[in-house]
């Protein structure tokens, strides 16, 4: 798979993972504990878990394909566990994607 494509898909998964994390924290958890609706966490948690695994897998692929360091991978993992972290991390991913596009042009 091309570096541009891998990075593009990683950015999509990173944003989706970040949204699912915020929904889990901001919607599903309050529904569970304030409204006694544990199903919200079960569904939201399962979706978030799937997206988190996809995030880790794609981060590893990006690290391997674009010759990123283990420090970069650590930053990606840190971003994935902090609220709004993936959105902040996406800024550097966008810059990398623009650099790849310029290099190919």
Shape: elongated
Strand content range: under 5%
Structurally, how many domains make up the residues? 1
Task: Estimate the helix proportion, in percent.
Answer: over 70%
Report how far the terminal alpha carbons are from each other: 18 Å
> From N to C, what is the helix and strand string?
HHHH
Overall mean pLDDT stands at 94
Structural class: mainly alpha
Annotation, overall tally of beta strands: 0
Can you count the helices? 4
Rg from C-alpha positions?
Answer: 15 Å
Describe the sheet with the most strands.
none
- Could you list the spans in which at least 5 consecutive residues all have pLDDT below 50? none
Q: How would you characterize the overall build of this protein?
A:
This protein has 4 helices and no strands. It has one domain. The two termini are 18 Å apart. The radius of gyration is 15 Å and the shape is elongated. The chain is mainly α and 105 residues long. Helices cover 89% and strands 0% of the residues.
Quick description:
This protein is an all-alpha fold and 105 residues long. It has 4 helices and no strands.
What's the topology here?
Blueprint: H1 3-35, H2 38-65, H3 70-81, H4 85-104
Helix pairs in contact: 1-2, 1-4, 2-3, 3-4
Notable characteristics:
4 helices, single chain
């Amino acid at each position: 798979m091309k570096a541009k494509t891998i990075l593009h898909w990683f950015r999509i998964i990173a944003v989706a993972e970040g949204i699912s994390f915020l929904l889990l924290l901001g919607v599903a958890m309050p529904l569970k504990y304030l409204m006694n609706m544990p199903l919200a966490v079960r569904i939201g948690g399962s979706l978030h878990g799937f997206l988190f695994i996809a995030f880790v897998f794609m981060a590893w692929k990006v690290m391997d394909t674009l010759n990123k360091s283990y420090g970069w991978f650590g930053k990606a993992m840190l971003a994935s566990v902090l609220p709004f972290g993936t959105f902040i991390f996406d800024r550097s991913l966008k810059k990398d994607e623009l650099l790849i596009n310029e290099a190919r042009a």
